[in-house]
Amino acid sequence: MNSEINAIELIDVTAGYGDRAAISSVSLSLAPGSLTAIFGPNGGGKSTLLKCIAGLMQPWGGNVQVLGAAVGMHAKRVAYVPQAEQVDWSFPVSVGEVVMMGRTPALGPLGRPGAADHAAVSDALGRVDMIDLAQRQIGELSGGQRRRVFLARAIAADPEIYLLDEPVTGVDPTTQEKIMNILDAEAARGRTVVATTHDLACAAQRFHDVVALAGRVVAHGPAQLVLDQAVLEKTYGGHLVPLAGGGVVLLDDPHHSHGAHEGHE
Amino acid sequence: MNPLDLLIAPLGYDFFVRALIASALVGVACAIVGSFVVLKGMSFIGDAVSHAAFPGIVIAYLIGAPIILGGAIAAIGTALGIGAITRRSGLRSDAIIGVLFAGMFALGVAIFSSIPNYVGDLFHFLFGDVLGISAGDLLALTLLVFGLLLVLRLLWKELLFSTFDPLGAGAAGLPVRRLDDLLLILIAVTIVISLQAVGIVLVVAMITTPAATAQLLVKRFTAMIQVAALIGVSAAIVGLYVSYSLDIASGAAIVLLETLIFLLALAFTLIRSRIYAARGAAKI
User: Fold this and answer.
1) Contact A153/B168, CB-based, under 8 Å?
2) Please, are residues A7 and A32 in contact by the beta-carbon 8 Å criterion?
3) Range of the domain at A122
4) Cβ B170–A54 below 8 Å, yes or no?
5) How far does the CA of residue B66 sit from the closest CA of chain A (Å)?
6) Residues 6+ positions from B278 with CB-CB distance below 8 Å
């Protein structure tokens, strides 16, 4: 694809729930092959921003372009991974079936999975080290395995754009390492990766770019920005506590109650 | 009378055979849509839609239109109305359902109570009368079951994806809202066609109970639908015999049997998980 066209382009986007705006006047350009973490406080609009890009929310104003066209035009080339809390883990479905869902949109209504689809599913399961668990019901998986199944589903779709809501929240360090290695590899071959996260260390070390979001875009730039005290102060406001010796500590609630609330509306 | 006669004797009556086939078809149809209803957490919608059909049935009766058509229009209208109002009002869907459910049923009762002469036919829709089912109703039920199986066959993977993860499916371009509306229409049609057999008050149990039981027992969606259908059919057939020999209402007999199967399945799963827990503890 033409590298001059941004993979994702938001111009002056405002969106929210009921009468509360979650994001206001957000403008953002993400290039193909970028690996971007969106961080910020609870209720700062991380999930909302991701949903606007995914076409799951209609912005109140502004314009969202994905792969050079209006949202939804290239939906089959976008894979969205919801937060773990938004998934019904008691649903009677196996790991393999979930990953096959990644192939569903491209197959079309009358298409049936063929050899290529089954190969793509095994391939994706192999990349997240879960081949052996293909027949398991998803409720029987650990937290880290649950995140990996959904990543495998996204991989199986072979998308241009990965949109991941909290892909590394609540997972063990080994799983986080695996997930980030895969996302890094996907970005390296030109796929655009956008993930929300609460994990600032992960954002700083494993992503190329970061967006600090607190209702509006506070900063957008290289990953080291998350270590910039001025950016952190503007993003988190009163949740920063100064330490003796000049440092600060962030009191952030990793259970993102706002994210869960947004999901129900 | 020996036990075999108890099974065979009723089969000499045409109305009983018709009722048997009708109950089995209702059992299958309700189990299929019920599996989606249970997994999407929409049991309450089933209750609302069945009650909402009542004014349509009463009005159709008054103006001499086909009763199933009247019920279907009211039920589908309410089902889609619940979805549309929930999306626009910002209220939770259970509140909208409560309002529409009560309002529509009250409308039916108001019109019903204004009818001066005997309306025994309409009472059958409240509590069901599978023994009075006509050949036309039987045909409608058969078409319904074939229609449902056809939709499942054509749209299985789309329905699976959008039921399991509406966000992921929507982002990938599946028409999640239209699939939702299709499900609501199928639920409404199934309910209306089943009303004659089990009645407004009990149809929600026919939809919810076999599917909920099946979810306790199996771990795949396809298996869940099959087990739910098996429970629906067996409870319908056994329930009808029980109803015939003990002379109790057929709908109530079927639903009571389904409830009993549910309780047995629940006890089974609780005991099974205790045994697993004990084995796990023993290993440590």
Assistant:
1) yes
2) yes
3) 89-158
4) yes
5) 34
6) none
Q: What is the CA radius of gyration of chain B?
A: 20
3-state secondary structure of A171: coil
- Number of compact structural domains in chain A: 2
Over the stretch A178-236, which tens digit does the pLDDT of each residue have?
A: 999 999 999 999 999 999 998 888 999 999 999 999 999 999 999 988 888 888 888 88
Same domain, A134 and A247: no
Mutate to test the interface with B, among A78, A104, A107, A121 (most CBs of B within 10 A): A104
Tell me the nearest-neighbour CA distance from A263 into chain B, angstroms. Answer: 10
CB nearest B167 (choices: A76, A80, A137): A80
Q: Give the integer Cα–Cα distance in Å for B137 and A243.
A: 77
Contact at CB, A92 and B218, closer than 8 angstroms? yes
- Give the span between the Cα atoms of A214 and A219, in whole angstroms: 10
DSSP notation for A195-257: EE-S-HHHHHHH-SEEEEEESEEEEEEEGGGGG-HHHHHHHHGGGEEE-TTS-EEE---TT-H
Query: In tens digits, what is the pLDDT along chain A, a chain of 265 residues?
Result: 445 689 999 999 999 987 889 999 999 999 999 999 999 988 899 999 999 999 999 999 999 999 999 998 999 999 999 999 999 999 999 999 999 999 999 998 888 999 999 999 999 999 999 999 999 999 999 999 999 999 999 999 999 999 999 999 889 999 999 999 999 999 999 999 999 998 888 999 999 999 999 999 999 999 988 888 888 888 888 666 666 666 666 766 555 444 333 333 3
Topology of domain B3-283, CATH: ABC transporter involved in vitamin B12 uptake, BtuC (1.10.3470)
Residue with tokens 């109570």: B113
Cα nearest neighbour of A150 on chain B: B168
Least Cα separation, residue B266 to chain A (angstroms): 15
Q: Do A94 and B168 touch (CB under 8 A)?
A: no
Structure tokens at B94: 């259970």
Residue A166 shares a structural domain with residue A253: yes
Question: What's the rounded Cα separation, in Å, for the pair A68 and B171?
Answer: 16
Q: Which of B155, B172, B220 sits opposite A75 (nearest CB)?
A: B172
List pLDDT tens digits, range B25-66.
999 999 999 999 999 988 888 888 889 999 999 999 889 888
